[in-house]
Fold each of these.
Amino acid sequence: MHVLFCPKKIKPVPEFFPCSYGLQEQTIGKGVLVANRLSGETSPYLRQHSDNPVDWYPWCPEAFEKARREEKPVLLSIGYAACHWCHVMAHESFENPSVANVMNEFFVNIKVDREERPDLDQIYQMAHTMITRRNGGWPLTMFLTPSQIPFAGGTYFPAQPRFGLPGFVQVLEQIRDFYREHKDDLEKTDHPILQYLNQTNPSISGREADLDLTPVEGLLGSLKARFDTEYGGFGNAPKFPHAMDISFLLRRYQRQGDQSAFQMASLTLHRMKGGGIWDHVGGGFARYSVDDRWLIPHFEKMLYDNALLLETLSLSGRASGDLRFEKTAEDLVGWLFREMRSDGGVFYSSLDADSEGEAGRFYVFQKDEVRKILTDGEFRVASEYYGLTGPPNFEDHAWHLYEAKPVGELSRQFGLSETEIEARLQSSRKKLFEWRSSRVRPGLDDKVLASWNALMIRSLLLSGRMFERQEWIAAGRQALDFVRSRMWKDGKLMAVWSDRPLPAYLDDYAFLLWALLESVRVDFRLEDLDFAI
């Protein structure tokens, strides 16, 4: 563990709400714990922790006042509802009374939903990088002074030592001892972390900058250098979609006819659609792939990923005329409307990776299970198409479906037309979907975020315009009208739709304006122009 001293002069981050509501008493061990402070929160992620034996606070002034009064460090845990390793740490440590007793005795414990408070997440992710010299992630585990200054941290810690990591109780005891010994120094001593945070958040000067294409050419060169020419995407595993990079390449092709840019984007989208990062039964893209071939995903599905990827599918379909892009977009929107859309027309945030305590349990199959569901003819085709003829590809005991052979090859193999092969696959998907629907479903984070909804609104409007799908445009407009009527209050945008307003951030405003401009382009409405202005 790397520990750095931090100066007192770092400006505390904003505090919005008191947290002394909804308190209940739980008996933990021999004592009585005031618990369930999180039960009154609007965030599903925070509510998931409302019955932990940990004495959690949301981010609020009361927590830091308690830390100052009792001269304790603050344990800040940041995560989100669909995060698999957040669940693992919760099950191993936060639901464990013996671990919770240590946390409660020596720390003031704060839980934050990174989707509700991206500002806090950004600040402490940067601090984590400075302190540990490693990339951050979730769950983020940071230790702060009562003045909100970070002095140590990490991400996931196992309850017992493993993976080359110390056990969480061991970490807590080391931090407790370190804080007691260096408490005064932590509040007084200057350290480069202040300069680091200031450098990564530079002030805006009034000097005009010269604009040229140097950054554009630099980005293109970087993407070409990192491009995987066999499987698409950029860099090594774990491999993320990088939808914004794909959109950049497609717009480069549109404006300058750069064939290499289009080929990188097209190969990436086709490989992703053929891989297991795409849900071949229910539609929608998972957050990332754990391998470089896009085969096994980290199974959570995020609204923002699918919004940005819907745009790339639309741009690719328009640029190439390849109907496969439109079909994938259609299946993505079908999943969106079926599983992520509220009664009011806005969209929820994410689907969990886990169900019944296991990542991917909802999505993977047993071969005998598939054979039971399908007819013999369907199974012969589906088993070849989805890779069931090989060994299990998910944790050595199950199969996660992906496109192992293209339809054309199956047509030659079985002596059937491609239309007949497609018909068998379509019938198989329908039966597998119905079978899978009877399983325990992954958790839904029904939080409605302005920024992510704005991204999806824009993508629905854009894809509806490009593919001439009026129902997609209508859905985008319905969600846009919801945001305007329910999330715009007293001339200000709310970041989250809830009973307790949370002021919006810059990206909320920027993405909403982006969506409004697309709405005006699709079909002019004066109210959209007025709202944008």
Note: The longest helix spans residues 168-188.
Amino acid sequence: MEVHTNVLVDGVELDLVALDHQGGRALVYVVEVKSRPKRKLLEQVLSRVRMSDYVYVALPARYYPFLLEVPPPVGSLAVELSSQAVYEIRKASYVGNGRRLLEKLRSRPLQG
């Protein structure tokens, strides 16, 4: 899996982009990583659905109740900061829009 951080696409910064090259077209995972939940976080992750195959929000584990409320198709990850363990609270649903991001990135290589 190829992982990039702070990817800028059309003026939008994606915290983490992972490309899984197993199979035909690479699957695109976008993860928005935050230190605490904010009102605009849900808007952000829902807008990422338009350009990815899977979208996740990652927050410190103490925000577990918020992570349970993240609406599908977005998945949620709890990060235990002391041990750096990551737990999948809700699996993201496949939405199949990753081709859009791949097309935008075709003209320039990813870094990070």
Note: The radius of gyration is 14 Å.
